[in-house]
Each structure stands twice: as structure tokens, then as C-alpha cells.
Design a protein that fits this description.
There is one protein chain. With about 1550 residues, the chain is of the alpha+beta class. It is built from 45 helices and 40 strands. The strands form 8 sheets. Strands 19-38-37-36-20-32-35-34-33 form a 9-stranded mixed β-sheet, sandwiched between helices. The chain has a 9-stranded antiparallel β-sheet with strand order 22-21-31-30-29-28-27-26-25, sandwiched between helices. It starts with 7 loop residues before the first helix and ends in a 55-residue tail after the last strand.
Length: about 1550
């Protein structure tokens, strides 16, 4: 009898879980979008059910615009209680309540200023705060302690002042770098804070104290209340003018606001009529002075804004005399209020501001009144989220009558606001006031629809009067931004560990020396006891041992090298310069290259495992193009989306065409179509350059009016021209009267209307109750009856109009599933099926689809429905449900017209960039505020989501539901992939997987997933997927998601975005990248790297990042090595001097060792070394995976370099020692070489020669600079000995004569030179043999690629010319490898249709034909897609072509392959039979789970990797006997070891 609950199938949020507790997945784009719509509909039903159930337990607040209040203190309902913090009451012309005022009537609450600061320092805090941050480094504390020790002579330091210089240099250089970076932030802050705004002045804001200054300003008598500051004075002087007035008019009401400076002009202006500039007929007119003002942008100083001008500092208005809402004309006021210009930072909570068109919103403002007759205003949020579409906001009903200063003075109300919080999509407040007519207390709900967020831009609205609610740090966008962090690279953090280890080692050897020295001092049978009496610092052996300990710390201090940090700062500065100078990352439209803002984390760019990206403005251009449509089952549109082209290319289909060829074909087709349409009718509003629906067939069908399809096409495009909420604008009505521009709430709307315009159905304009269009050149006028707006719940929009013939028609457009539910029963099933297939085809091609339907209404039916709808609008309880129910009564029995397909244009090269990043082993997560379907469509269009992926959609309203779905998803993955792993060596791309997964999750579900109990499971689920798409997420959720992966997986993360809503995740990630925009981007200001396009990320990571990581890793290892070999040689001397810390070397050698003799080779290694060329790195993105796994800088590698230094230090000491011990020689003049200076100099020269040569051996890329530096540094040592030998005795370096004539004594002796050469050879021989063995028998991927580049034909196959013309064995076509010749310049999204295509003629190779090739022909056949093809059985190296033709099948990979071997594998022929010029070793492609052409053999052979090399880590080549080939007479004709 009673239906207590709806069916469980309608409300079960886990109905996608099968009986085996596995989550249901979908594959194709169409099925994924359909599943997302279904999940959202079910979620809406669940919310409605829960809301109805809750009515039995709590009382809902009334939500009508003006309802009698139950009590004066009644607050909004439950949702606010979850927000932490105290609610705030903002009073306007009302006294404060007793609880909110002190004994003097001053407000107790103190609100933040509107001044914001993103910089980390101020002038007062810079020095202490920066030093505090620098001394967080353990090494700096250690260096400071050593400097302090050397100040005391007892420890035997030669020059304490000199020892302090390196530390001072580090501190100064780092401080200057940090200061410059922070000064740039401070400049941007100052530009924002000093922007101009109009505020109501000479009016008491009782929410602020009369004297709000802090105590120190009162004490110093500065910034007195009411005093005009210098900045405000400058602003007003700049904007001062004569003959100025402002008129705020409300449509035909005849009220205005004008200046009192020229009353005659004002009265005249009021009597005249003003052309409407705002929507709805309300207007704002400026009679401007002669002084031009600078335009204002956010941030200021950028072009592209129209300024409105003010003549004087204050303005007064002529009020109306009607008491409406909050206005009470019986109230007595002073009448002194004036509009005045001030600065953003001067705004306070409770101020009334006047915003004009094209101005920025300076704070979070509640809309009181606008120029629109309905109280609407339009905002552009491009600075926040990168979206250019307009957002609609509305004024409060009670305050919508405000239009002058006196109106505001006569008003009285209180805004009860919730505390500031981060959620951009929620705001709840209550406006309380007393009705002047009845004396009743009333209230009105305030939501996010009445709130303007800081940073938005006012568009299409003449003026807005608003109340400031949140300022500065309390604004939503600032709360989502967070503080600017101090980032440190991963290697820098690892260096702290190495420093600690070295310090422990240092303490150990110093302790050994001190203990032995103390024991020896206690012996009385030694020669020192007899001959060296009185030389000790005290008579206590313990104190002497302590002195020896500190002396050894000073002597061996280079084990922890202070010069390392100096060199790193130099190297990273050079790396930042190279990144900034890379022309491949230069973006011409913005005239900017990549801008490194944080120089200290360049090596992190080579270790990124996860990229978190925004969608709008980052992956897309936020530009919609109408590509295709289906009208009555017939598809029109010849365009090819990037998703379709990418899929065809990956699958190797013949229809994969180059973008240039596609552009040429579309241009010809468009010319044909335009010519046919021009003959049919005159379309004055057509914009040929913006025509995107290219279909000559459409023009043919329009030409034949006798067919039924003609009427279907006319009805379809008529619906597009009528069913929308677009505003038509004529920017230049005099010069171009027929040039229309459409401004809409979403780019989809504008694209649909623009497509109808260009085909011949232009929307001309919308007046109060009419809609004017043209149909094939004939004007038509529809009477607008009602609009049922689009919402995320309804997923459809309807417009009810009266046609020119008098019929009432309902046009409806929306998601296909929603429209199909409302189709009439008599719709042709064949038409429904054909249209469904067409929409699936569109969706699978990466297009956004909408279904269009209509219904003719009877007059009586419409009138009855209208009464029900108006009653639903005025209801109090369940208003939204009542409106939806009323709308559903009319939106049924629709007839289908067709479907549209829009392409959200991607940025240039985005699909190719994502594909290359994926091949590099990087996983990409999309974090967007857009709705679910939009994100899914973009995911498929940019190849992030693929048709063969198992897509899981998570949607739940409760933590329990979220947990159940995540567990079901893990079960699903475990059933197909097996148990997960988190080993470091298995990170990156996963070979041989049976399936690839993707997760799509909405914001509400993500909120539950990020709770402490569930987030470990969500992390486990997300990190096993190739792609994760998070929709409807707030900026704070973006940052929390990045933090979850960064800390949970200990992974290196990179965030990239273009809006202020991306700042939080950019700052949270290890590396933050911001895209530069036309108006200046908050994201770019807060980022570590700023550049113009997403595609530049590939060059930044795969080339510069990989190089930087490799360079810094090698530099660190070599630096520790060279200091160990130098310092431990001194330690070996300790037993021969009773461990008393006697210096083996001359003090000048110690001073210059890290400064001159060995510093430049490692700096050059860290700055210029390249293990492989940039083009080869882009051709083989899989090489990047070593950085993801951290294999280039491991602790094992560090210890092996330390052990190498230990061995070499023993060699360079004991070989000279044995030479001196076994037989001393004399020089030609008879002098012996038995002094400490002679022996120490020999050891020093051997150590320096060995160290520099060792660094040279580890250098991959020898340039002229490398030759000069490596050899020159050693020669400088010899030159210094020559100079030092002739210096006088008492010098800065020494006061003894031990070095006089050292050149004659040593350099003339063969024993000395032989000892040095022999010591160096013995020291370096093991390292040389190991490198030879590894490069020959265990080469890494990069070693093979280097050998191919240097000695093979890789350059030829990539279309790159050799430096030497003799090596250019064949003519290289300019278009052979366009990806490398012109990086990132070949994508369909960047090619306009009018561009000219230059075809490339494929050259036939000599000695080959179509049927076969000569055995001597080592070149690959050119195919249209890429410069060389792959033979299924080929063992040749196959770099990544720009458009690869690959085998992506999962079944192609060996199921028994072990996870240790992730990098590229190679089949090695036997070394004697290799001919690299003909058949280089086959470096195969990484595994990649994509479909392949049937019958193709796999290109990847996975081999287990049992052997572990500490220097190189995992992932090297393993030759097998089965892989060896007999090449017959082919012989090796080049060097084998590089």
C-alpha cells in the first residue's frame, strides 16, 4: 500500500560490482561516456532518496528568495556546521550586536587585509630566514664548525680566513639566487596589490575599527586613519580628468549615478537615451576626459584589456525614491557617500565596491546589484581555471534595486556568512533585513551563484555593485594556493645521507689518528720524547689527542667537500641557462621560451614518474569546433580528429594521413562547399575562415529542395539556431555590420550556433521576448516562451518558442541517453539505431556528442504546464525537485532531429607528447574541475584513454560505497594482472601486461577516497593504472592527490597547469610547471618552470631532464671520488708521522686542489656532458626509465666510487713511497729528492693527474671545452709548481724554504716522471678494464644507442646529416624525420585549413624495388607514416619514428618474462661478425599494451636479468646464443669500444 523506499536498483551505488566482487569495466569511448552518465543519474537518485529520508529527522532551511524569518538568529542548515571556523556577520548600516562589539563599540572581529603575498621573504626576514633554511643542510653546519675550529692556532690551521671563503661563497650565492627568485614574486604581488578598484568612500564601514592600525604604527604615527596614502594619491592623479560623469541606469527606470563636477552635462545626459551595453538593457556610460589611463589586468601590465576612465577621485549619484527590499527611504543619512578610486590592498571586509566591464574582481564579493534587468552578470574565469567561457552570476533579489550611493546609504542589512574555506563550488550565507513597508524581518539565501571570486573578469556586464566578504588570505583562490614552498632536489636530499656517511668515516679516521697519537705521546722510548720536547700543546695526553682529532678534522675536511656545493650551484645555473635558450621550447605567439624559475631542481626533471595535469587550457585550447553531425541518419562532415588519426597511425591502417595532407584535402573540400552554398543563397553572416563543418554533400542536399532530407536539414539547423542561451554581439557595427561574435556560458554552445551561422542559419540576435534568425537567407522571428536551463543533473536544455507560423515548439538538446528516454513511441526504430551508431562512431573518435529533438505543443497543454512550472518555481520545500518534475512533464514524446559532434581542440602536439611520455614510462593523471563526460572525451581524444583500456568509473556518495568500489577494482585488476608490486626497479612501463586499466573518479568520491582509512587502497588502485582521471575536483583536492602519490609511493611527481586553481598542486609536486597565457598566468608565476605549450614537456623531461639527472649524478660521484683519492693519500702518510696531522702536501696544493686543479673537469662534466644526442633521446624515450628507477645515482654506485678512490689513493701514495724507499735518486745537480716537499709533490701530481683523467674517462661527450679543461687543469698544476718554485720564501702560502728550486730538483729527474706516469696507469687500469668489459659484453641501452649514433647508421635513419659529408651515404629527404628536424611542429591541431600543404615525394632507394631489396641495401623502406619501416623478423635497431608502425598486442609478449627487465632489450650478434653500418644491434621497443596488426611478430624480447652491476643498476642487454646471427662475410669495420 505504501511505497517506503525506491527500488534498490535505483539507489544501490555499488551495482557495478559483480558477484565475484569485481568492478565492471568498459572499453570504448561511447560505452565509457554512457556508463558515466548512468552513474551520475544513479548518484542523483541516491541523493534525492537520502534527502527525502532526512526530512523525517531534520528541518530543512527555506530557500526562497524572500521568506519571513522564523527568528533573527536562525542560521543556514547543517552543511555549514562541517566547516571549521567562526561564522562572520557583515553589517551594512546596522549597529553591531552586543556580542560582536567591545565596550567602545568597536568590532571585536579582525579580518585579514586584502593585501596578498606569495613571496617567502621580506626585507626584515630575508637574512635570518634564508640563513636558517641554508643551515638546514647538514653540510653547511659541518663547514661552519670547521671554520670556527680553524680560528684557533692550536689546531695548526694555516689560514682561518681563507678557510671561511668557500662557505661564505656558498651562502652568498645561494642567498642571491633565492633573493632574485623571491624578488620576482614580490614584484608580481605588488602589481596585483596596487591594482585599481572603485569603492564607496566617505561612508562608515562599521565592520572595521575606527583606527585599525597595529600598535607600532600608532607609536610611530604612520598611516593615520583617513589619510590618503601615496599610492592612492598617485592613482587618483593619474586618473584625474575633467568633464567626467558616471551613469548607472537600470533599463527604463530612469535612475542614474553621475558626477557633481559638471551638473549641466549630467542633467543633459539623464534626459537623453543611452544605447544598452549590458545584457537586458541596463547601461553604463562614461563621458571621458582627455587623459588616457593604463589598462588594468590581472596581473596588471599586460595587453588586451579595455579601460574605463574616471575623471576625479569621488562621484555622487542621483537616487530613486522607491523603497524596495533593503532600501528604506525614511532612513536619515548624511548623503556624503561617494565613489572613490583606491587600491586593491586597501579593501576591507564590509566595503561596497563598484566593478565595471573588463575589470578584475579584487576580493570575494557578494553581488548586490547589476546593470542587467534580471540582476544577471557574466564572468570569465580564465585566470582561475583557464576557461574562456562565461559564467553567470546573479544579484540578490533584496538588493537588486541598489543603483546609487544614496540607495546604499538608505539600505540596511546583515550578511551572515560562513567562514572562509577552500571549496570553490560551495558558499552558504543568509541576508537578513527588515522590510520597510511591513516592518517584518526577512531573509534571503546566498549561494555560490551570488558570489564573485577574486581574480575573475567581468564580461558583458556594464556594472556590478558588490559587498566584500572575504579579503586577501581569506579568499577562496588564495586558500587553495598555499604558501610558496622551498623545494630541494632528490639528489640534494640523498647528498645529505652521503655527507653523513662521509662524516662518520671522517670521524672514524680522525679518532684512529687521535687515539694512536695519544698513545704514542705517552711512550717514553721514542725519538719524539727526546728530540721534540715542548712541541705539544699540553702535558695531558688526552688533551693532546683531542687537539690531534680536531687537527685531523681540518686536514681531512675535503672528504666532505665544501666545493661540491659551490660547483653544483654553478652547474645548475648553466643548466638553467641551456633550458632557457632551447629554441625547440620557444613559443612564438607569446614570444617566450621556457623560463626556469627554480634552478636547483633541474635533475628532478630526469626522474619524473607521475605527471598531474589540468585539462582546460593545458591539454586543450578550450576551443570547440563543429566537426560532424548526423541528420536523419545521414552523416555530414569530412574532418578527421586527432584521436582518429592517432588510432589509425598506431594500428598501421592505410587511412593514416599526415596533418599537412589532411589540411590540403579539407581546404579543397571547403572551397567546394562554400562555392555551392554561395550559389544557393546569400549568407551575409558567413565567416568562411571559421567554417569547421566541411561537407560538400551537405551543400548538395540543401540544393535539392525536392527531397525529404532537405526539410530534415533545415529543421535540424533551425533547432541549433534557436535552442541555446548565446548572446550575439557586433563588435564593429559600423565597419562590419554583418560580423557576429557569439558569447556563451560554454564553448559548446558557441560552437553549435556558429556552425549553424556558417552553414546558412545564423542567429542574429535576441531581444526581450524574440529570437531573430535567418534560414537560407530569409529572416525568421521566433517568440521566446520559456527556457529550461541545462544542469549537471538534467543533462539537457530545452527552449520553448512560438514559431512564425504560430505553432509552439519545444526544442531539446542533451546527452543521447537522456534524449532517447524521452522520445516518442512512434519514432522510427531504424532511425534511432542509425543515429545511435553515428553517435558511438563520433564518441569513439574523441568527439563530444549531443542529441537534438523537438516536439510541437498544443496551446492548452503549454498553458497548463506553465502554471505548474511557475508554481514549482515559487515553492519553498524541495524546490529543485519540483522544477525538475514540472520540466519532465513537458520534455517527452520528442521527435529526433539528429546529433552533433564537437571536437575540443587540443593544443599542438598533445597526443604525440602523451604517447611519447607514456613510452618513457611516465604515468599521467588528469585532475580537472570539469564534468565527468568532458574529461572522458578529452582523455580519448588525446590518446590518454584508449579503446582497448579497461576503464573503471568510481562514483559513490558514502565512504562505505567508495571503499567497496575501490576494493572491487583491485579485485578486478588482481584477477587479470596478478598481485601488485612496488619495487623501485619495476617502476616505469610494465611489459607483457595482459590488460591496461584506467580509473575515472568524480570529486565527491575522491573526497571519500582521500580519507585516511581509504587512501592507501585508492593509492594502490591508481598507481597500478596507466591513467587516472579525476573530475570535479577542487584545487585543494588536486594538491592532496599529488601529495598522496608523492609520499605514498615515494615517487617523483610533476604538476602542470595554467590557472590559479592549479597553483596548489604545482606547489605540492616535486616539480611544478605552469603554462604561460595571453593574460599572464597565476600558475606560471608560482611554477618552477614556465613555458608556452604542453608539448614542450617532452623536450624538457626526456632531453634536458635526463641530461641534468645524468650529469648531476656523475658529477656527485666523481666529486666524492676525487676528494677521497686526495684526502686518503694524506691519511696513508699518518703512520710515518706518528699520526700528528702533519700535512703531506704543500698548503698551496691543498688550497688550490678543489679551486683550480680539479674543479673545472667535474663542472664541465656536470654542465656539458651528453651520454646520447638530444634527437636520439627523443627517438628512444624508453631510455628515460633509468631515471624513474633512480639507477644513475644509487648508494651502491656511490660506495663503488668511494672504494675506487680508496684504491687509487693507496696506489698514488705507496708506489712513490716504494720508489723512495727502495732507491733514492738524485737530480742532475747532485741534490737529493728525499725531502717531504719532493715526496708530497710527487704524490700530489699523481693524484691530480689520476683524478682529472678519471673524470675524463667518465665523460661521454668530448668537446673542445672538455679537451682543454681536462688536459689544461693538469698542466696548470705543473705551471703552478714552476711559479711557486721561484717565489720568495716568506709568502702567503709558506714561510719555509722547502719549495725552493723544486722544478730543478723534480722535473729534471726521470724517476719522478716515471713514478707519476706509472702510478696513474696502475690507478686507472681497473676502471678502464671494467668500462671495457661492460660496454662490450654488458652494454646498457644508452651504450648501444651511442654506438649506433657514432659508428652506425642511426643518423641516416633519423634523417640527420653527418658533420662530415663523406659519411652522408645517401641523400636525406628533408621530410624523412619531421619530428626531429622540426620538433613538435607536426600536429593536426596546429594546422589551419588555409595552410598550404607541401607534399613529400618518397625517394626510391638505389638498388631496391618494391618487391625486394638487395642484400647490400642497408636502408629501410620509406613509408608515408614514418621514415623507415619494421620488418617483423628484423633485428635492427628501431628508434621511435614520429608516427610509429608498431606491434602493440599484449599477446605478442612472452608471459614468462620477468619483471626485472624493463628497458629495451637487444639481440646481440657475435662481436666479430657485426657490421653496424649494415645491421646495427637491434634495440627493440618497450612493451606497450596496444593492439597490433594480426600476424605481426613481437618486437620485444624480454630476458631475465640475474646479474647486478652496482654502477649501472638493472635493465641492460643480455645476449643469448639463440639471438646470435651468422652474417657470413659481413665483418666489423669500425671501432668496437667508444
Amino acid at each position: 500500500m505504501f511505497k517506503r523506499n525506491p527500488a534498490s536498483s535505483d539507489i544501490d551505488e555499488n551495482d557495478t560490482i559483480d558477484p565475484q566482487l569485481r568492478l565492471r569495466t568498459v572499453r570504448t569511448a561511447a560505452s565509457t561516456i554512457a556508463e558515466s552518465i548512468r552513474s551520475e543519474i544513479k548518484a542523483a537518485k541516491r541523493r534525492n532518496v537520502n534527502q527525502k529520508r532526512s526530512l523525517f529527522f531534520r528541518k530543512k532551511p527555506k530557500t526562497t528568495e524572500s521568506v519571513p524569518s522564523v527568528g533573527p538568529s536562525e542560521a543556514p542548515s547543517a552543511p555549514q556546521s562541517r566547516i571549521q571556523g567562526a561564522r562572520r556577520n557583515v553589517y551594512v548600516n546596522q549597529p553591531l550586536s552586543a556580542m560582536e562589539a567591545d565596550q567602545y563599540g568597536e568590532p571585536l572581529a579582525r579580518y585579514a587585509r586584502n593585501k596578498v603575498r606569495t613571496s617567502r621573504y621580506t626585507l626584515l626576514t630575508f637574512l635570518p630566514k634564508n640563513l636558517f633554511e641554508q643551515f638546514h643542510r647538514i653540510a653547511n653546519i659541518y663547514f661552519l664548525a670547521l671554520v670556527v675550529f680553524q680560528l684557533f692556532p692550536v689546531f695548526g690551521a694555516a689560514s682561518a680566513q681563507t678557510a671561511a671563503l668557500p662557505l661564505l661563497f656558498i651562502l652568498v650565492v645561494t642567498a642571491v639566487k633565492d633573493g632574485v627568485e623571491d624578488y620576482r614574486r614580490a614584484q608580481l604581488d605588488e602589481e596585483v596589490n596596487t591594482s585599481a578598484v572603485t569603492r564607496l568612500g566617505e561612508w562608515r564601514n562599521i565592520n572595521q575599527a575606527i583606527d585599525p592600525r597595529p600598535w607600532y604604527q600608532r607609536l610611530l604615527h604612520i598611516n593615520a586613519p583617513g589619510k590618503i596614502t601615496r599610492g592612492v594619491q598617485k592613482l587618483r592623479e593619474k586618473e584625474a580628468g575633467e568633464g567626467k560623469q558616471i551613469i548607472l541606469s537600470k533599463g527604463s527606470e530612469g535612475r542614474g549615478s553621475m558626477s557633481t563636477t559638471d551638473m549641466n552635462d549630467s542633467i543633459t545626459a539623464l534626459g537623453g537615451s543611452h544605447p544598452p551595453t549590458g545584457a537586458g538593457g541596463r547601461e553604463l556610460e562614461d563621458i571621458e576626459g582627455s587623459i588616457n589611463l593604463e589598462t588594468h589586468t590581472y596581473p596588471p601590465g599586460l595587453p588586451g584589456r579595455r579601460a574605463w576612465r574616471l575623471g576625479s577621485a569621488q562621484y555622487q549619484s542621483i537616487p530613486s525614491r522607491s523603497s524596495l527590499g533593503v532600501v528604506d527611504w525614511s532612513r536619515r543619512t548624511n548623503g556624503t557617500a561617494r565613489w572613490e578610486r583606491t587600491l586593491w590592498k586597501k579593501l576591507e571586509v564590509g566595503d561596497i565596491v563598484l566593478l565595471r566591464e573588463d575589470e578584475q574582481v579584487p576580493a570575494d564579493v557578494v553581488v548586490l546589484s547589476t546593470s542587467d534587468a534580471d540582476g544577471l552578470c557574466y564572468l570569465e574565469t580564465k585566470n582561475l581555471d583557464g576557461e574562456t567561457n562565461l559564467k553567470v552570476r546573479k544579484a540578490l533579489h533584496a538588493t537588486s534595486s541598489l543603483s546609487s550611493e544614496e540607495d546604499i546609504e538608505k539600505s540596511s542589512f546583515v550578511l551572515d556568512s560562513e567562514p572562509p574555506h577552500q571549496n570553490l563550488y560551495i558558499y552558504n550565507g543568509v541576508l537578513r533585513y527588515t522590510d520597510a513597508a511591513t516592518g517584518e524581518s526577512r531573509r534571503e539565501a546566498v549561494s555560490i551563484n551570488e558570489l564573485l571570486l577574486r581574480g575573475c573578469t567581468v564580461r558583458n556586464t556594464a556594472w556590478i555593485i558588490g559587498l566584500v566578504v572575504f579579503t586577501g588570505p581569506d579568499t577562496k583562490i588564495y586558500l587553495n594556493g598555499g604558501r610558496t614552498p622551498s623545494k630541494q632536489s632528490k639528489i640534494a636530499k640523498e647528498t645529505n645521507f652521503n655527507v653523513i656517511v662521509n662524516f662518520i668515516f671522517l670521524v672514524t679516521i680522525c679518532s684512529i689518528s687521535a687515539i694512536i697519537n695519544g698513545v704514542m705521546d705517552g711512550l717514553t722510548t721514542t725519538s719524539t720524547y727526546i728530540y721534540e720536547q715542548g712541541v705539544e700543546s699540553s702535558s695531558s695526553n688526552v688533551l693532546n689527542a683531542l687537539v690531534t682529532f680536531v687537527s685531523c678534522l681540518i686536514a681531512f675536511q675535503n672528504i666532505v667537500p665544501v666545493s661540491l656545493f659551490i660547483s653544483i650551484e654553478i652547474v645548475k645555473t648553466i643548466q638553467a641557462y641551456f633550458i632557457a635558450q632551447d629554441l625547440d621550447m620557444y613559443y612564438k605567439p607569446f614570444n617566450t621560451a621556457c623560463v626556469p624559475k627554480n634552478w636547483g631542481i633541474s635533475d628532478d626533471l630526469g626522474q619524473i614518474e607521475y605527471i598531474f595535469s589540468d585539462k582546460t587550457g593545458t591539454l586543450t585550447q578550450n576551443v570547440m569546433e563543429f566537426q560532424k553531425c548526423s541528420v536523419h541518419g545521414v552523416i555530414y562532415g569530412e574532418g578527421v580528429t586527432e584521436a582518429q588519426r592517432g588510432a589509425a597511425t598506431r594500428e598501421g591502417r592505410a587511412d593514416a594521413v599526415e596533418p599537412e595532407e589532411l589540411a590540403e584535402k579539407l581546404t579543397a573540400l571547403k572551397d567546394t562547399m562554400v562555392a555551392k552554398l554561395t550559389k544557393l543563397f546569400k549568407n551575409r553572416y558567413m565567416q568562411v575562415n571559421k567554417l569547421t563543418l566541411v561537407s560538400p554533400k551537405l551543400a548538395d542536399d540543401l540544393a535539392d529542395r525536392s527531397t525529404e532530407q532537405y526539410s530534415h536539414i533545415v529543421a535540424f539547423f533551425r533547432a541549433l539556431a534557436v535552442c541555446h542561451s548565446v548572446l550575439a554581439d557586433k563588435p564593429e557595427p559600423q565597419e562590419r555590420p554583418y560580423h557576429l561574435e557569439y558569447k556563451a556560458e560554454s564553448p559548446d554552445e558557441a560552437a553549435l550556433v556558429a556552425a549553424a551561422r556558417d552553414v546558412g542559419f545564423p542567429f542574429v540576435g535576441k531581444h526581450k521576448d524574440t529570437i531573430d534568425i535567418e534560414v537560407l537567407g530569409q529572416p525568421e522571428r521566433f517568440t521566446h516562451m520559456k527556457t529550461l536551463e541545462f544542469t549537471s543533473t538534467r543533462k539537457r536544455m530545452s527552449v520553448i518558442v512560438r514559431a512564425p507560423d504560430g505553432h509552439i515548439i519545444l526544442y531539446c538538446k542533451g546527452a543521447d541517453s537522456v534524449i532517447y528516454e524521452r522520445l516518442a513511441a512512434n519514432v522510427d526504430p531504424a532511425l534511432k539505431e542509425k543515429t545511435t551508431k553515428d553517435m558511438d562512431f563520433f564518441a569513439n573518435g574523441g568527439l563530444r556528442t549531443l542529441c537534438i529533438g523537438y516536439r510541437v505543443l498544443a496551446e492548452e497543454e503549454f498553458l497548463q504546464w506553465l502554471r505548474k512550472y511557475e508554481a514549482a518555481q515559487s515553492t519553498i520545500d524541495n524546490r529543485d525537485e519540483a522544477i525538475e518534475s514540472a520540466a519532465a512533464e513537458l520534455e517527452h514524446s520528442l521527435q529526433i532531429l539528429g546529433a552533433t559532434a564537437l571536437e575540443d581542440k587540443l593544443q599542438e602536439g598533445v597526443p604525440e607528447a602523451i604517447e611519447m611520455l607514456h613510452r618513457a614510462g611516465i604515468k599521467l593523471w588528469i585532475l580537472t574541475g570539469d564534468k565527468l563526460q568532458t574529461a572522458i572525451e578529452i582523455g580519448f581524444s588525446c590518446n590518454l584513454l584508449k579503446q582497448d583500456m579497461e576503464v573503471m568509473i568510481l562514483s559513490a556518495d558514502t565512504p562505505e560505497g567508495t571503499l567497496a568500489q575501490i576494493e572491487a577494482g583491485l579485485n578486478k585488476m588482481a584477477s587479470m594482472l596478478g598481485p601488485p608490486t612496488s619495487k623501485t626497479v619495476e617502476r616505469g612501463f610494465v611489459p607483457g601486461t595482459k590488460a591496461s586499466f584506467a580509473v575515472v573518479i568524480d570529486g565527491d568520491t575522491l573526497h571519500h577516497a582521500l580519507t585516511p582509512a581509504i587512501k592507501p587502497l585508492f593509492l594502490n588502485l591508481g598507481t597500478q593504472c596507466e591513467t587516472v582521471v579525476c573530475c570535479r575536483v577542487s584545487p585543494a583536492q588536486k594538491a592532496l592527490t599529488v601529495k598522496l602519490v608523492k609520499e605514498g609511493r615515494k615517487a617523483m611527481t610533476l604538476s602542470i597547469g595554467d590557472g590559479a586553481n592549479d597553483v596548489a598542486m604545482i606547489q605540492e609536486a616535486n616539480v611544478g610547471c605552469g603554462l604561460l597565457g595571453h593574460e599572464g598566468s597565476q600558475a606560471a608565476m608560482s611554477a618552477d618552470y614556465a613555458f608556452g605549450q604542453f608539448r614542450f614537456l617532452t623536450k624538457l623531461l626526456l632531453v634536458h631532464g635526463r641530461w641534468s639527472y645524468q650529469r648531476i649524478a656523475d658529477m656527485h660521484s666523481n666529486f666524492f671520488y676525487k676528494n677521497v683519492i686526495w684526502t686518503l693519500a694524506m691519511f696513508w702518510f699518518m703512520p710515518f708521522c706518528y699520526f700528528d696531522a702533519t700535512y703531506l702536501y704543500d698548503y698551496s696544493f691543498i688550497l688550490f686542489y678543489n679551486l683550480i686543479f680539479t674543479s673545472l673537469p667535474v663542472i664541465v662534466l656536470g654542465s656539458f656532458d651528453q651520454d646520447i644526442n638530444a634527437k636520439a633521446a627523443l627517438a628512444f624515450p624508453q631510455l628515460y626509465v633509468r631515471g624513474i628507477r633512480g639507477l644513475e645515482y644509487t648508494r651502491t654506485k656511490f660506495w663503488f666510487y668511494m672504494l675506487d678512490g680508496l684504491y687509487q689513493s693507496a696506489v698514488v701514495f705507496f708506489i712513490p713511497y716504494l720508489v723512495w724507499q727502495l732507491g733514492l735518486a738524485v737530480s742532475y745537480n747532485g741534490k737529493g729528492i728525499d725531502s717531504l716537499a719532493d715526496f708530497g709533490t710527487t704524490v700530489a701530481i699523481a693524484a691530480i693527474f689520476a683524478a682529472n683523467t678519471y673524470v675524463g674517462m667518465n665523460t661521454h661527450y668530448w668537446t673542445y671545452i672538455t679537451w682543454i679543461v681536462v688536459i689544461g687543469s693538469s698542466l696548470v698544476m705543473i705551471l703552478w709548481i714552476v711559479i711557486y718554485s721561484v717565489l720568495p720564501v716568506n709568502t702567503f702560502f709558506s714561510s719555509t724554504d722547502g719549495f725552493i728550486d723544486e722544478v730543478e730538483i723534480l722535473f729534471s729527474n726521470v724517476t719522478f716522471w716515471a713514478t707519476v706516469v706509472f702510478s696513474v696507469l696502475v690507478a686507472l687500469a681497473p676502471r678502464f678494464l671494467i668500462k671495457f668489459f661492460k660496454s662490450t659484453y654488458m652494454p646498457l641501452d644508452k651504450d648501444i644507442v651511442r654506438e649506433m649514433w657514432v659508428g652506425g647508421d642511426l643518423k641516416d635513419r633519423l634523417g640527420i646529416r653527418h658533420r662530415k659529408e663523406l659519411k652522408n651515404k645517401r641523400v636525406v629527404d628533408l621530410e624523412t624525420a619531421p619530428m626531429f628536424r622540426e620538433p613538435h611542429a607536426r600536429s593536426a591541431s596546429e594546422l589551419a585549413l588555409q595552410q598550404v600543404y607541401e607534399p613529400t615525394a618518397a625517394r626510391s632507394l638505389a638498388g631496391s624495388d618494391a618487391s625486394g631489396k638487395s642484400p647490400d641495401d642497408n636502408s629501410a623502406e620509406l613509408v608515408p607514416q614514418h621514415p623507415f619501416s619494421h620488418s617483423p623478423n628484423s633485428h635492427s635497431l628501431s628508434p621511435e619514428p614520429p608516427v610509429p608502425k608498431l606491434d602493440y598486442s599484449r599477446h605478442a609478449y612472452s608471459p614468462s618474462a620477468k619483471a626485472e627487465s624493463y628497458e629495451l632489450q637487444v639481440r646481440h650478434p657475435s662481436p666479430p661478425s657485426r657490421d653496424w653500418s649494415q645491421s646495427p644491434s637491434g634495440l627493440q621497443k618497450p612493451t606497450h599494451p596496444h593492439p597490433s596488426a594480426p600476424g605481426q611478430e613481437p618486437l620485444v624480447q624480454l630476458q631475465p636479468e640475474p646479474f647486478h652491476d652496482p654502477d649501472a643498476g638493472e635493465g641492460r642487454y643480455r645476449p643469448k646464443e639463440s639471438d646470435r646471427e651468422d652474417h657470413g662475410d659481413i665483418s666489423w669495420d669500425g671501432p668496437r669500444v667508444l
